[in-house]
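Bumping my old thread because nobody answered last time. Still need a sequence for this structure:
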């Protein structure tokens, strides 16, 4: 049977190990969790593997996790003790890591493998809610530490063939990431930047979309929304792999009543054809 082309996603991943917690903290992300359940349902059994680009892995160049059984990286602080012992047990895929590395190299992108790299919380925090059965193989791709938008858009373009092979490409970041603003000061900048992001992704032509993303620092409140851009750059890979496909907002919320956050799908769902 022909494998339908998969969409790509940019997903706002939530805070730390939120999906391994209960109570009031987890309830803050109820709408995000609902959106991830909807993503799982709309994709059905189409994904054979996942390539996730996390905001929490920057490297010198592009690196792929290639362990068969990735460990855990508890890259957060201030959370309950049990969250430093949680496990996301989805297998890795050395074969997919090698395949992606070769794909990147054939596209002129230097890539290497890291057999020691485990899942960081940008991966496991999101994936625990998205695929709680932990049965889909996962490979992580690092960001390049220079965080250049055009470079990551280009890397995404090279990865496009994976969409026809049943590999789900996910950029895991946050559409608004300023940890110094968790109160009413975040209301205006997060809303205005989100409006710009919605306009750019959903309503602009593909060419204009790419131009605006390369120049994202000119967006209103850009550097207040992202003092560091590592949480925005995974979006570039998802958009690059999407090509000219249209965007749909699949999650939109005001976290803590002050921070506007969104997630996006690029491309049609498998049942809708390619």
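Sorry it took so long. Here it is:
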């Amino acid at each position: 049977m022909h494998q339908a082309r998969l969409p790509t996603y940019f997903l706002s991943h939530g805070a730390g190990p939120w999906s391994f917690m209960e109570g009031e903290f987890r309830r803050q992300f109820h709408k995000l969790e609902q959106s991830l359940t909807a993503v799982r349902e709309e994709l059905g059994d189409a994904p054979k593997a996942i390539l996730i680009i996390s905001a929490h892995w920057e490297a010198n160049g592009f690196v792929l996790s290639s362990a068969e059984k990735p460990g855990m990286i508890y890259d957060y602080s201030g959370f309950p003790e049990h969250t430093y012992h949680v496990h996301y047990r989805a297998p890795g895929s050395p074969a997919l890591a090698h395949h992606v590395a070769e794909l990147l190299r054939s596209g002129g992108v230097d890539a290497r493998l890291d057999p020691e790299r485990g899942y960081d919380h940008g991966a496991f925090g999101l994936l625990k809610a998205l695929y709680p059965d932990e049965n889909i193989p996962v490979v992580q791709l690092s960001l390049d530490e220079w965080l250049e938008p055009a470079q990551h858009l280009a890397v995404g373009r090279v990865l496009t063939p994976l969409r026809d092979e049943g590999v789900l490409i996910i950029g895991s970041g946050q559409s608004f990431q300023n940890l110094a603003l968790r109160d009413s000061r975040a209301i205006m900048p997060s809303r205005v930047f989100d409006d710009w992001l919605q306009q750019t992704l959903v309503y602009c032509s593909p060419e204009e979309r790419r131009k605006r993303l390369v120049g994202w620092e000119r967006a209103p409140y850009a550097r207040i929304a992202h003092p560091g851009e590592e949480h925005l750059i995974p979006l570039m890979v998802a958009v690059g792999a999407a090509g000219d496909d249209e965007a749909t907002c699949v999650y939109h919320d005001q976290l803590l009543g002050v921070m506007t956050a969104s997630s996006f799908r690029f491309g049609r769902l498998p049942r809708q054809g390619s």
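The mean pLDDT is 95. Let me know if any region looks off to you.
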